[in-house]
């Protein structure tokens, strides 16, 4: 009977065929299924609406900071 030599790469590849593959879930799905995250999301939304006049002023006077806020996901792009 022939003997086979398994390299580290082949060994890892062999074991990768077994087990369940975990794919990351979208953040909206995670928030929708967790009551604590729902509460925090609502709280953050309330904070964002409370700062509306200040945010509109930043949008008008300093577009660079506004772009950073939008890029960071702190305010929606179409915030009015």
Structure, explained:
The mean pLDDT is 79. The protein is elongated and about 75 Å long. It has five helices and no strands. Helix 4 packs across helix 5. It has 80 residues and is an all-alpha fold.
Q: Can you tag this structure with a few keywords?
A:
single chain; mainly alpha; 62% helix; 80 residues
Class per helix and strand makeup: mainly alpha
* Helical percentage: 55-70%
Rg (C-alpha, Å) = 24 Å
Q: In angstroms, what separates the terminal alpha carbons?
A: 75 Å
Count every beta strand, where a strand is a DSSP E run of 2 or more residues: 0
What about the largest sheet?
none
Tally of contiguous helical segments: 5
Strand residue percentage: under 5%
Q: What pattern of helices and strands is seen along the backbone?
A: HHHHH
Average pLDDT taken over every residue = 79
Low-confidence runs (pLDDT<50, min 5 residues)? Answer: none
Task: Specify the overall morphology.
Answer: elongated
What is the element layout, followed by pairings?
Elements: H1 8-16, H2 27-32, H3 35-50, H4 52-61, H5 63-71
Helix pairs in contact: 4-5
Structure summarized in a few sentences:
By secondary structure, this protein is mainly α. Helices cover 62% and strands 0% of the residues. It contains five helices and no strands.
């Amino acid at each position: 009977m022939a003997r086979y030599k398994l390299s580290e790469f082949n060994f890892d590849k062999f074991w990768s065929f077994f087990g369940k593959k975990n794919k990351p879930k979208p953040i909206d799905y995670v928030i929708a299924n967790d009551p604590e995250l729902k509460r925090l999301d609502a709280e953050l939304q309330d904070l964002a609406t409370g700062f509306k006049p200040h945010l509109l002023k930043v949008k008008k006077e300093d577009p660079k900071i506004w772009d950073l806020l939008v890029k960071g996901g702190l305010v929606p792009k179409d915030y009015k």
